[in-house]
Amino acid sequence: MNMITARNLQKQFKTPVVREGRFSGVRTLFSRQYVTKEAVRDISFDVRQGEFVGYIGPNGAGKSTTIKMLTGILHPTAGEVMLGGMNPHEERRKTVRKLGVVFGQRSQLWWDLPVKDSYDILAEMYGVSSDVKKKRLSQFAELLDLESFWATPVRKLSLGQRMRADLAASMLHDPELLFLDEPTIGLDVNAKRNIRRFLRTLNEECGKTILLTTHDMDDIEQLCNRVMVINHGQLTYDGTIASLRDTIGLPTLIRVAFRGRVKLPDALPSAIQVTRMDNQVLTALVNRKEWRTMDILKELEQWGEIDDIEMKEPDFEDVIHKVY
Amino acid sequence: MKPISWFHLYKILIRTSIRSRMQYKFNFVLGAILAALIQISEFLMVALVLHKFGAIKGWSLHEIGYLFAIMTLSKTLYRTFGNEVHHLEKYLVGGELDQLLTRPMPVLLALMPQNFRIMIGEVLQGGFILCWSLAGMMHSGQIGWTVVPFSLFVIVTGAIILFSIGLATATLGFWTTRIEELQVITEDAARTAAQYPLTLYPKWMSSLLLTAIPVGFVNYIPSLYLLRGEGGAWVLAVIAAVAVICLAASLRFWTFGMTKYQSTGS
């Protein structure tokens, strides 16, 4: 079943040229000069139930704009969104009832009140009975370790605590679909790990569908089974992480220490590119798409007696860098 | 969801808002005192003007006091419940409307209870002038007791009209983002002008204040009937109709404007 269907989504921002000087607001209102920015050009995709999708792209690529269109905050200039069979722009209230939304950059909690008060208000808003609320919160409290700051006003929480509190808030009404916009931004390793564990539980054990944007490639590698890359408002890749690596075809770095004499063949196979050879250590880049690892090993054995081999897969960061 | 549960939710959000404000008690108390001081000085200004000029263009001191009081109380009622509509710019510039849009309730209902405050200074000031004007006119036999309940009715319709003007102005912010200067014209200037009888102004201006920015229906038109007996009871029906039409039109405009919301960069 499709949880998200996006068809030919487009968003143009048309901003009037701001006038200078007195009454600039009124004059801008009647200004006929506009600057049009195409934030999202033409994006279509489907997300099935239970998928964990990473949505990545450089700053300003249109990630947040897409998420805001999906969640009904922004109306697309053209195109259509369906979430679980409902259109968030025509039936916003009904649709958002089934969504959890977390923006890493801002909180949906009540800034001046203790954390637990926000949950009480949200429970009322979503019509969650107090028994169910208690049950869910005790689950989240365990998974996210909320209890230590239960009674602290939100404004006094650390970033990591606030993020955990926000995640719990977004799941209080038990939505099937979760949108996370940079949930790990600015967090330390520990907090990130905590949040990833929670998200993995939601996805694997509770079967929630999750779409997340991030700049942290570890988030993607550890959590997502599918990646979508957006750049300049268009999807440039949509598939698994493994095939993303393949598509890019970044070479694997291989370092071989030989024992005894080494003799390189006169004509090197095209898949192996030797970058360095000093003493008896050879460094080379191999294209794994052309040659299987066994073939490479066989070839290397011809060159001399192998003492040790070390292989390094391309960094995911590098892969992404190449996609952008 | 049923209207009754919307009301329940609205109450909870107002309570939340008050509790949030009480976190900063010093600011809360100081704010209340300052607001009262501002109101007193404004009242002294008006009293001075009235004392100096007395009747203006055939309008007595009490009648002008009545115009002023109705406007003050209508505005107070509007701002008590719809203050954040007036401050929508903050939400547009900061993108804070995002959060409200992800909540399963009408955006206005989520917006209005934010920063709820009881404007005690304005209520006292407006109430005092209203009582003084009414007492004066009753004493001279110009009006009877029936004006009292009608005045309350007019305060409510006036608040609805002011709210509609405020909402329509705020909605323009979906296109322009900044709306403060526009608000100075459509809200502050128009309201201040209507604190005095509209006959004071040139024809084009008084008709402007009865059509494009219909603040005249808040206090001037009601006063013509209630205090001076011009027209009949149908005037009240017209005023109620104007309030309902303004509200419906501004709500429609608001709903349309929200589809133009641009949010901010993340």
- Which parts of chain A are unreliable, with pLDDT below 50 for 5 consecutive residues or more? none
The number of distinct helices of chain A, counting runs of at least 4 residues, comes to 11
Portion of residues in beta strands of chain A equals 25-35%
Rg on CA atoms of chain A, Å: 25 Å
Q: What share of the residues of chain B does DSSP label as strand, in percent?
A: under 5%
**Oligomeric state as shown:** heterodimer
Q: Report low-confidence residues of chain B grouped into runs of 5 or more.
A: none
Q: Give the largest interface pair and sizes.
A: A-B, 43 and 39 residues
- Sheet bearing the most strands of chain A, described? 6 strands, mixed
Cα end-to-end separation of chain B = 32 Å
Q: Please give the alpha-carbon distance between the first and last residues of chain A.
A: 31 Å
The sequence of SSEs of chain B as H and E is: HHHHHHHHHHHH
Please, how many domains of chain B? 1
Helical content of chain A stands at 25-40%
Number of strands of chain A: 13
User: Helicity of chain B, in percent?
Assistant: over 70%
Major beta sheet summary of chain B: none
Q: Helical element count of chain B?
A: 12
